[in-house]
Request: fold
Amino acid sequence: MPAPLVVSIIALALSLASISWQAWSWWWSGPIVKVTGAFDSPIYGGVQSDGGYHFIQAVNTGRAAATIEAFGVTLPSGLKPIRYRQDDLDAVEPCALPYRLEPQSSARWYFTPQIFQGEEPKETRPFVMVSGKGQKDGKKFFS
Reply:
């Protein structure tokens, strides 16, 4: 095999490896948002709430910020109640939407059980709407 052909094949292989690495690292360099939901009695301003609230938490483990526009739950019946603001609840730190979720940080949005519309909370899935990325779903509540 002639030397120029061998050099060309090696250069092509290295180019493909390089572009694959660049595409992979670009894909994973943005925000990576993980969503969970649970039940809590929060403490804010030194006061613990007497009523328990449900919350949705978004954690950004990526290297870029994300903007959370809304949150909600997917009910077993298929309904998706969406909230664009957090309820005014006693002993809960306000967390306004849209919310800029910085890299390596998290935020919680609390709400009352009325969002479940009488359906079983353990069978619902929390989600957040991320600007430019769409809906990010979490695992079932309490799992």
The two ends are 60 Å apart (CA to CA). The chain has one helix and ten strands.
